[in-house]
Amino acid sequence: MEMMPTIFFFFLQLLFFSSSNAAVQDFCVGDLTGPEGPAGYSCKKPAIVTVDDFVFSGLGKAGNTSNIIRAAVTPAFSAQFPGLNGLGLSIARLDLAVEGVIPLHTHPGGSELLVVVQGTICAGFISSSANTVYFKTLKKGDIMVFPQGLLHFQINGGGIPAIGFVSFSSPSPGLQITAFALFANNLPSELVEKTTFLDDAQVKKLKAVLGGTG
Questions:
Q1: Do 88 and 68 share a structural domain?
Q2: Does the residue 23 lie in any domain?
Q3: Buried (b) or exposed (e) across 84-96, using 16+ Cβ within 10 A?
Q4: 189-196 and 200-210 are packed helices; what angle lies between their axes, rounded to 10 degrees?
Q5: Are residues 90 and 187 located together in one domain of the fold?
Q6: Which of 82, 91, 98, 198 has the fewest C-beta atoms under 10 angstroms from its C-beta?
Q7: Which residue positions in the chain have pLDDT lower than 70?
Q8: Does residue 190 have a known ligand-binding role?
Q9: Is 99 annotated as a binding residue?
Q10: Do residue 106 and residue 197 come from a single domain?
Q11: Is the dihedral of CA 176, 180, 182, 188 positive or negative?
Q12: Is residue 169 located within the same domain as residue 186?
C-alpha cells in the first residue's frame, strides 16, 4: 500500500512534464508553394505569416454564370485562403442565374451548409442507404445541410438570380460532379453505356456537350 502514493506522484509528475513540454500551435497557415497532402499543406514559417493570410476578399463579387450550367462557384478553400489550413472549415459563394443549376455532385472531404441570401434555390440530396431524396425550395434566410459524401444539387428556383453561401467542415472538401465524371473524360462510350443503361446516341451526345472523348 505504501507504493501507491509514490506511483501516483510519479504519474502526476509525468503528466505535468508532458503537458508543459507539448508544443501549442495556434494555426498552420498553408504554404501554397508546396503540394497539398491528405493532411493539408505544410505550415508557413511564423516569421513570414501576415494578417493577409487570415483575410479573403473574393466573395463580394458575383461569379461568371455565362457557361453551360448558368452558375458559378467562388471557393475560399485552403488553396485560395491559406489561413484556413488545418482549421477544419471553409466557405464558398454560389451564383445561379435564372435557370442556373449546380449539377449532382459530392464533396468527399466534408459536409456542407447552405444559406440563401438572394432569390430562391431548390436544393436536395440523396441518401446512400435507401436512395431517399430530401429536397426543398429554399428562400432568403433559409439554411440546409448536405451530409458528407452524399450526392446533392442546387437549382435556381425563381425568376431572378439567386445567391447562396456554403460552408464546409473541411478546408479542402473536394468536388466530383457526376455528369462530368461520366461524360467529360475518355472512358470508352461502351463502358459508360453498360454502367449507366444509356444508349450510344445519348452517351455520345453528352460527351460532345461536356467535352469527353471515347
A1: yes
A2: no
A3: bbbeeebbbbbbb
A4: 120
A5: no
A6: 98
A7: 1-24
A8: no
A9: no
A10: no
A11: negative
A12: no
| pLDDT for res 214 | 82
123 DSSP β-pair partners = 136, 154
Do both 116 and 135 map to the same domain? yes
Residue that the C-alpha cell 467529360 belongs to: 184
- How is residue 25 written as a grid cell? 500551435
Q: Per-residue pLDDT tens for 39-56?
A: 999 999 999 999 999 999
Query: And the C-alpha cell for 149?
Result: 459524401
Report the candidate in 127, 151, 150, 154 with the shortest Cα–Cα distance to residue 138.
154
Instruction: Answer yes or no: do 133 and 91 share one domain.
Output: yes
The Cα 144–Cα 181 span in angstroms is 25
Number of structural domains (the chain) is 2
Looking at the fold, whether 158 and 204 belong to one and the same domain comes out as no
DSSP state of 54: G
Is residue 134 within 8 A of residue 125, CB to CB? The reply is yes
Alpha carbon separation from 163 to 40, 69, 77, 83, 153 (Å, rounded): 29, 15, 18, 25, 14
**Grid cell at residue 26:** 495556434
pLDDT of 25 reads 84
Same domain as 151, residue 63: yes
Distance CA 201, CA 140 (A): 41
The widest CA-to-CA distance across the chain, in whole angstroms, is 85
Model confidence, pTM: 0.84
- Residue at 21 is within a domain: no
Q: Which domain holds residue 81?
A: 46-174
